[in-house]
Write a structure and sequence with these properties.
alpha+beta; eight-stranded antiparallel beta sheet; three-stranded mixed beta sheet; 4 helices; 11 strands; globular; disordered N terminus
Length: 244
């Protein structure tokens, strides 16, 4: 009887241990399931954002003697979304509002359906003594063909001479006006067709700073509004010079 009782107690002890193991296993499975669910939702959102952010927190970036303040959702790359000193600042902005990424603008920033409404913008330290408009007479004029093709809104498109080194590019030149001509380099042919922003212009702003913006060639018809809008954006972003 004692032996039987002993075996019964041992069996119950084994059963109790088994039940504890089963309970712990189910608890761990439930926890893992919850973590997968939460993690999946977070990962899904991260994949959906694809490097974008809706965070509009302003960041203060110092380039040379210039201080720029821009919202995080206008800064193109995650590593650049911080305060501090930088050699350049790379942005992307939706035309025509010049706003940064948002859920409502998701399709534009992801170029859904082949849309091309994003301008790629950078602020960089000025290396050349003249911006693109200033380089027209002393440099570009001797590198382009003498005959141009009429473009939209008074713009003339000039091909570059073969020896110029500007392969698959043309020069878009606006009419002469006070403050200088509008001048932009644009890609041509198949290269242009594959580009999200096939034209580029740079303008001197701030203290030895240059604003570079790339835009789709379809906006050449709005060149004046485009240039004025970009300069206004730069003036708004530029704050008190560092050390001033």
């Amino acid at each position: 009887m004692q032996a039987t009782a002993g075996r019964g107690a041992g069996t119950r002890w084994i059963d109790d241990r088994l039940m504890v193991k089963v309970f712990v296993a189910f608890a761990l499975l439930a926890l893992a399931s919850a973590l997968i669910s939460v993690g999946g939702k977070w990962l899904g959102r991260s994949i959906a954002l694809a490097g974008h952010t809706e965070d509009a927190t302003p960041h203060e970036i110092v380039i040379g003697n210039n201080v720029l303040v821009v919202p995080a959702n206008a800064i193109r790359f995650e590593d650049d979304r911080r305060d501090g000193v930088a050699s350049s600042l790379r942005l992307y902005l939706r035309w025509p509002d010049l706003d940064g990424y948002s859920a409502a603008a998701r399709d534009d920033f992801n170029h859904a359906g082949g849309s091309r409404n994003i301008l790629f913008v950078s602020f960089e330290q000025q290396i050349m003594s003249r911006d693109m408009s200033g380089r027209f007479d002393p440099i570009y004029a001797s590198l382009i063909e003498s005959e141009g093709t009429p473009g939209p809104a008074g713009v003339t498109l000039y091909g570059f001479k073969p020896q110029s080194g500007y392969l698959d590019e043309s020069l878009a030149v606006g009419p002469a006006q006070a403050g200088g001509r509008f001048v932009a380099r644009c890609l041509t042919g198949a290269v242009a067709a594959e580009s999200l922003a096939d034209c580029e212009r740079d303008v001197a702003v701030g203290d030895r700073l240059v604003l570079v913006y790339r835009f789709p060639s379809r906006l050449l018809g709005e060149w004046k509004r485009l240039d004025e809008s970009m300069l206004a954006y730069a003036r708004k972003a530029l704050k008190t010079p560092a050390g001033g």
